[in-house]
Amino acid sequence: MKNRTENQTWRSVLFSIGWIAAMISAAAGICSWVDPFPLLSDGGGGSRLNPLETWTLMAGISAGFATFILGAFGKRVSRVLLVLLGPLLIVFNILGWLGSHR
Fold first, then answer.
1. Domain hosting residue 70, numbered range
2. Contact call for residues 3 and 9 (beta carbons, < 8 A)
3. Does a structural domain hold residue 31?
4. Number of structural domains, the chain?
5. Domain-embedded: residue 42
6. What count of other Cβ atoms lies within 10 Å of the Cβ of residue 31?
7. Can you give the three-state secondary structure of the chain, one letter per residue?
8. Quick one: CA dihedral 63, 68, 18, 11, positive or negative?
9. Which of 18, 25, 47, 69 has a Cα at 20 to 30 A from 76?
């Protein structure tokens, strides 16, 4: 039979990973808002989107989703905060990506 402290340890580790995922998602969103990736030349006089932009978007959305899921392992107010922060970070990343495609 598992003791209570072992369950609490796993719970706090997963919750801490959720906070780290939130920071990664926020950094990806800030990257797309503050310094959008430049267009690349396609060699024929045109331009194409930078693949780093798409990778940053996917990292931000994935980390925001992980924040939402792992927030459930917290306690009290911190749980609610992290669960609500996940979808906000996803929207923040999508709006940053859309803003760089004007």
1. 4-37+47-99
2. no
3. yes
4. 1
5. no
6. 19
7. CCCHHHHHHHHHHHHHHHHHHHHHHHHHHHHHHHCCCCCEECCCCCEECCHHHHHHHHHHHHHHHHHHHHHHHCCHHHHHHHHHHHHHHHHHHHHHHHHCCC
8. negative
9. 25
Locate 26 and state its tokens. Answer: 């926020």
pLDDT tens digits in sequence order for the chain, 102 residues long: 556 666 678 888 888 999 999 999 999 999 888 877 777 888 887 877 788 888 988 999 999 999 999 988 888 888 899 999 999 999 999 998 887 665
- Token digits for 76? 């009290």
